[in-house]
Amino acid sequence: MHAAMPRDVSQTALGTAYLRAAHQLLDAEPRILNDPIAPRLLGEDAPRRIAEAAEWYRTPEACELRSHVVLRSRYCEDRLALAVQRGVSQYIILGAGFDTFVFRQPSWAAALRIVEVDHPGTQERKRLYMTRAGLAMPKNAGFAQVDFEHESLADGLSRHDISTDKLTFFSWLGVTMYLNESAIDAALSCMARFPQGSEVVLTFRGPVPREIDVSMRARAELARRVASLGEPFVSFFDPEQLNAKLLSAGFRTVNFLRPEEAEAQYFRGRPRDIPAPRGTRIASAIR
Fold this sequence. Notes:
This protein is of the alpha/beta class and 287 residues long. The chain has one domain: Vaccinia Virus protein VP39 (Rossmann fold, 3-Layer(aba) Sandwich). The chain has helices spanning 11-26, 37-42, 46-52, 54-57, 60-85, 120-133, 153-159, 181-191, 214-228, 239-249, 259-267, and strands spanning 90-94, 113-118, 141-145, 168-172, 199-203, 253-256, 282-286. The protein has a seven-stranded mixed beta sheet, with helices on both faces.
């Protein structure tokens, strides 16, 4: 569906960007995530490609996946807005991929220092896309290239002079399932060394559900796709396991976005073109 990319560009990050763009182009208003920059960043061909693949984007499995992708970003940005009110001044987007928050940030984000952390290859591709789309990094935002195969999060942040004494909000969406457990533990330990009041919002991959339904088929199809791209899922947690891991790392308060909460807050009252979540896969934790 997409043009071939070098191996060092994350295909899953690109696929996520296309899902966000498809939400803008195919789904009804009010949208879960208003992201008009997503199609623009992907280039002039993106709307055509999405239109040509509309039949796939409207399958139950694709709708389930798109729902999760836009919900996690919306929830994370809502949590960030609350965190800014309590004094958070630094926003670190781990595995940022082709995220667009810096280009559509609201007025309350102007005082934040925003850092996009990702693999050098993916960031280089994003810079090319930005140039093509006429987009420039705002003055309060920048890149930090970190290759997690060769260095820890702590080392990477230190190398880019990212302050560890400021109240910080971490976005860690669509990443933990690709890391082994020791790398996850090390990253959480690093985040938990930031001042009390710092926060992380992360997503995780749960165990395969016993029941055979659309949700299970969507997860199985996603697992097959990412494995075929050389980015297989390797870590799985149920909420109880992840809760224990976050508390053990040093976080004091852990909350999971339950399906009924997500439905009431984000999906109720809008068309049912994409489904509310059937499982719990998004967590927030505060130091």
